[in-house]
Amino acid sequence: MPEHHFILVIFGASGDLAEKKLLPALNGLTGGGFLTGRFAVLGTGRTPLDDRSFRAKCAASVAPGDAALLSDRLHYQPLNPAHPDDFSALRQRLAELNAEYRAGGNILFYLAVPPSQYASIVEGLGNAGLSGEAEGTWRRIIIEKPFGRDLASARALNRQVLTHFREEQVFRIDHYLGKETVQNLLVARFANGIFEPLWNRNYIRRVEITSAESAGVGARSGYYEQAGALRDMLQNHLLQLVAVTAMEPPATADAWAVRNETLKVFQSLRPLAPAEIAANVVRGQYTASRIRGEPVAGYREEAGIGSDSRTETYVAMKFFIDNWRWNGVPFLVRTGKRLPTRVTEIVVHFRQPPHHLFRQGDASAPPSNQLVIRIQPDEGLLLKFGLKEPGAGFRVRDVGMDFHYSDLSGVRLPDAYERLLLDCIQGDATLYLRNDAVEATWAFVDPVLRAWEEPAGSRLYGYPAGTWGPEPADRLVEPAGDMWREPCRNLTADSSFCEL
Question: 237 an active-site residue?
Answer without folding.
Answer: yes
